[in-house]
Amino acid sequence: MEILYLITTGGTIDKVYLERTGSVANLDTKIDRYLCKLRLPGLAIKTAHIMNKDSLEMTAADRERVLRMVERKIQRPAPVVITHGTDTLVETGLLLKRRLHGLKFPVVLTGAMTPLGFEKSDGLQNLTESLLAARLLPPGVYLVIHSQVFPIDHVRKDRKHARFVWTPPLTKGARRKTTLTRRP
Amino acid sequence: MEILYLITTGGTIDKVYLERTGSVANLDTKIDRYLCKLRLPGLAIKTAHIMNKDSLEMTAADRERVLRMVERKIQRPAPVVITHGTDTLVETGLLLKRRLHGLKFPVVLTGAMTPLGFEKSDGLQNLTESLLAARLLPPGVYLVIHSQVFPIDHVRKDRKHARFVWTPPLTKGARRKTTLTRRP
Amino acid sequence: MEILYLITTGGTIDKVYLERTGSVANLDTKIDRYLCKLRLPGLAIKTAHIMNKDSLEMTAADRERVLRMVERKIQRPAPVVITHGTDTLVETGLLLKRRLHGLKFPVVLTGAMTPLGFEKSDGLQNLTESLLAARLLPPGVYLVIHSQVFPIDHVRKDRKHARFVWTPPLTKGARRKTTLTRRP
Amino acid sequence: MEILYLITTGGTIDKVYLERTGSVANLDTKIDRYLCKLRLPGLAIKTAHIMNKDSLEMTAADRERVLRMVERKIQRPAPVVITHGTDTLVETGLLLKRRLHGLKFPVVLTGAMTPLGFEKSDGLQNLTESLLAARLLPPGVYLVIHSQVFPIDHVRKDRKHARFVWTPPLTKGARRKTTLTRRP
């Protein structure tokens, strides 16, 4: 069995609808409920649920907790997937990139624009892609979302269009070169 | 926009339930209906639906048609995903591997154990994974299914367990070396 | 709490897709799994799963078993819902009508054209309707399906169009009169 | 074809998730999209979408608009279903009951605790039940929800438990008598 570490921190992907208030919130993780919908023969996912936060509310201390959990897990090296709110996902990712040295496997961050299980959700798509990407990519820290792989220092959220974009923007001829992930 | 060619041939992934007969069959493709559920910014999928066959009924001539369609498409090089019945998917894939030379992008075959839209279907998972893998893998012919990537000449269907397995079987230490796809 | 008896016999509504054979069959009941999706406060459903049959394979003895189970249940009077294959549902219903006397609550038969959980299934719709109808209708034996209520001796299956129709056919002015269920 | 009027006013049943703000709101109606999932042979639904309001924001003038639309529709008599926020649904229903005279068909109000298309939503269940109840019940104004039928002047929302309850509370022996809808 291959091992993969899954660390959940909250974010939109994990939000639920609260009937009493008519609002959405991070109460608990539901990712396990959706992981069960995937067929993952030969893969042993070790899940650690460390917080239930909208990423706009994450503090520097919270990001340190994410870092420490990754460090602890990869003492036994294996790919890591982290689910995270999209608003500050890049910030956490950049911290991981700065502080993790000698990675033997990739660390993939992902999230969603609409919560898992809500109509038109991108949550299960992003989770599916992240699990595969974490097994295919070379060591490094990435955002995987909407069938795209971004090195964490080349991406920013485009809030208006609910997507992530390259930074700096890709010029036409540059695409393949910048996509380090095509030919690692 | 990146281009990706999607060639559909039928197979379980595309089967529908027929109310008059109480059976499932390949009538027409429904993959476009499920592709719409995915967010694929920056990706232009060019779909070619070439046949509606259970892969047990595919003839040598049918496999030649698949080959010719791939050859025609990649005159303008881009990744290719082919949906195919799982029973003879490897056979078609081996033909492609033998006959396609100088590939600049991967050709990914995929399928499903249960049709798209049926409870517990693996169809959308496999489609999601294949689209991403086709953008990440080095040139070659692969089967992508159940969060796994197999070079087409190292896989066989394990019908009893409704999954695909490595051939020859992986010995314990050999895993990472055999997974050519980890570090192409 | 109100009581309602639910008797399951198989039929299309309960069929599953078998990956090994690529066909659909009655293996076990999955109705409980779908009942959980409904909110039924104040209702205690007592389920009895008595057989797993395509209704074309039901024998006279099988129909007697259904009858005996209903008789046994309604010793403590309450509404009854029976899920059944649509091909011989009317036959079983007519037997119940002939043999059950002094009903204090309705007996509602229902089924589906496409199995529960398959795309475009009418199974959960019919189940939802039947549970409500069984609490609203006057005593008698009915088919409830596709937002329609038919007294069991005024309906036949129109296989070609995958629906049930009145027998004798309704003439235009006759509708309200024939729909005994509008104003019991 | 039987006719049924469907009037939509907004409410939780029709809310959507807004990706930019991470909140839910009434933007437009999505009920047509869910009606398509139901099989309704012989039924012609005439839909009028008159407002997009959380029912806590509905004014007296809004309720008058609902009333006038019902009055206009039933000039050609047929059953009416109204989707409405649950918080003031009963208030609107009581207005309809006071002001509509000589009803020839029922007026059924319904709504949902969780929006249509969100995991665990009761929206499609309530819509399915309301369409059937509107064809079965005697003339009058009702709330139909969660497999229950309440005359509009015998029900109140129990916000804490996200359900509706009888008012006055049913005493044990009184149930069947109060449920006017069992034997109209």
Core attributes:
184 residues, 5 helices, alpha/beta, homotetramer, two-stranded antiparallel ribbon, 29% strand
Topology of this structure?
The structure is a homotetramer of 184-residue chains.
Chain A: E1 2-10, E2 16-18, E3 23-25, H1 31-35, E4 43-53, H2 60-73, E5 80-83, H3 89-99, E6 106-110, H4 123-136, E7 140-145, E8 148-151, E9 155-158, E10 163-166, H5 175-178
Task: Report on the architecture of this protein.
The structure is a homotetramer of 184-residue chains. The model of chain A is unreliable at 174-184 (pLDDT under 50). In chain A, α2 packs across α3 (89-99). Chain A has helices spanning 31-35, 60-73, 89-99, 123-136, 175-178, and strands spanning 2-10, 16-18, 23-25, 43-53, 80-83, 106-110, 140-145, 148-151, 155-158, 163-166. In chain A, a hairpin with a 2-residue loop joins β7 (140-145) and β8 (148-151). The longest helix of chain A has 14 residues, at 60-73. The first copy, chain A, is globular, with a radius of gyration of 16 Å. In chain A, the strands form 3 sheets. In chain A, strands 4-1-5-6-7-8 form a 6-stranded mixed β-sheet, sandwiched between helices. In chain A, strands 2-3 form a two-stranded antiparallel sheet. Chain A is an alpha/beta fold and 184 residues long. Chain A has 5 helices and 10 strands; from the N terminus they run βββαβαβαβαββββα.
